[in-house]
Amino acid sequence: MSGLEQLYQQIIIDHSKHPHGVGLAAGEETSHQRNPVCGDEITLALRWDAAGERVEAVAWEGSGCSISQASASLLATLAEESAEESAAWTPAELTALIEEFREALRSRGAMPLDEERFGDAAALSGVSKYVARVKCAMLAWVAAEDLLQRREGSAG
């Protein structure tokens, strides 16, 4: 195992043991996603700025394998870092990020995630080599996508 693979593995382990963004508030609109193959479950909420135009944070609760839990934690961390840099995501920006994440994870290792764009979430690039684990890594991202689609549907 290369040094980079070891680092990525450690990031996934750290985020699964010490997750970021855990904790939902009463009344939040959530999306619950489940992987029936392995039993992973994620319930996720997007927290919006006061104007309701940008995602300031991602909150979640869940159970399952280290990959699904780390992926949710890494998505929450990425949202937090974006907001801290005054670059909280618009719905279109988050949609593009989710699509890029999905494309990389479905590439079977041919397209690694860009570390500049995805930060520590790029550690999930290696999951793309294991088709059975891709859904684990995608669970939180699919929940975010579901919330965006519902929001778009209710606004239209």
Describe the structure.
This is SUF system NifU family Fe-S cluster assembly protein. Residues 8-136 form the NIF system FeS cluster assembly NifU N-terminal domain. With 156 residues, the protein is of the alpha+beta class. It contains five helices and three strands; from the N terminus they run H-E-E-E-H-H-H-H. The chain has helices spanning 3-17, 66-84, 91-105, 115-118, 131-155; strands at residues 31-35, 40-48, 55-63. The chain has a three-stranded antiparallel beta sheet with strand order 1-2-3. Helix 1 packs across helix 2 (66-84) and helix 3 (91-105) packs antiparallel against helix 5. The longest helix has 25 residues, at 131-155. The chain is globular and about 45 Å long. It starts with a helix and ends with a helix.
Outline the fold blueprint.
Blueprint: H1 3-17, E1 31-35, E2 40-48, E3 55-63, H2 66-84, H3 91-105, H4 115-118, H5 131-155
Antiparallel strand pairs: 1-2, 2-3
Helix pairs in contact: 1-2, 2-5, 3-5
Condensed summary:
The protein is of the alpha+beta class and 156 residues long.
What's the count of strands?
A: 3
The proportion of residues in beta strands is 5-15%
CATH class descriptor name = Alpha Beta
Strand order of the largest sheet: 1-2-3
Shape: globular
In which range does the helix fraction lie? 40-55%
Distance between the termini: 49 Å
Tally the structural domains.
1
CATH topology: Sufe protein. Chain: A
Largest sheet at a glance? 3 strands, antiparallel
- Helix-strand pattern: HEEEHHHH
